[in-house]
């Protein structure tokens, strides 16, 4: 894959993830603020989902997005140093189709399959 195309794609994914993270952070702040000013009985919420569950869900999504950002940043570093698209296990080129589908991947299909079998 052309490094400039990869860089552009990764930067777009990074911008999307940053927007998502800002939204999640705002949602978390809204949940905390709403709970602070209310008399909610978190254990007996008649509407079903408790405030604690809502906070945990948003927190989990934000954590996952931060991990995605870390993976994108690592991929951008690989683009910069010329190792993007090279399998970290076998050293072969990673197919463009795989990079299109999983732009932050570090392994080729064969190595990913063998790693999956090894962990089974």
Q: Which helices and strands appear, and what pairs or packs with what?
A:
Layout: H1 3-36, H2 51-81, H3 96-101, H4 109-119
Structural write-up:
The chain is mainly α. 68% of the residues lie in helices and 0% in strands. The two termini are 31 Å apart. The model has no long low-confidence stretch (mean pLDDT 88).
Explain briefly what this protein structure is.
This protein is mostly helical and 120 residues long. It has four helices and no strands.
Key structural traits:
single chain, 120 residues, mainly alpha, 2 domains, 4 helices
The major pleated sheet works out as: none
Shape: elongated
Count of beta strands: 0
Strand content: under 5%
Classify the secondary structure makeup into a structural class: mainly alpha
Low-confidence stretches: none
Q: Percentage of helical residues?
A: 55-70%
Order of helices and strands: HHHH
Radius of gyration: 20 Å
Distance between the termini: 31 Å
Domains, number: 2
Number of helices: 4
> Could you report the average pLDDT, rounded to the nearest whole number?
88
């Amino acid at each position: 894959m052309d490094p400039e195309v990869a860089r552009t794609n990764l930067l777009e994914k990074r911008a999307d993830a940053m927007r998502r993270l800002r939204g999640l952070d705002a949602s978390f702040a809204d949940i905390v603020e709403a709970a602070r000013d209310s008399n909610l009985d978190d254990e007996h919420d008649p509407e079903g989902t408790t405030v604690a569950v809502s906070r945990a869900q948003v927190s989990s999504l934000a954590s996952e997005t931060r991990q995605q950002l870390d993976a994108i940043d690592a991929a951008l570093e690989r683009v910069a140093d010329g190792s993007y698209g090279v399998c970290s296990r076998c050293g072969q080129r990673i197919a463009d189709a795989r990079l299109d589908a999983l732009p932050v991947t570090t392994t080729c299909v064969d190595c990913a399959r063998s790693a999956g079998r090894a962990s089974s």
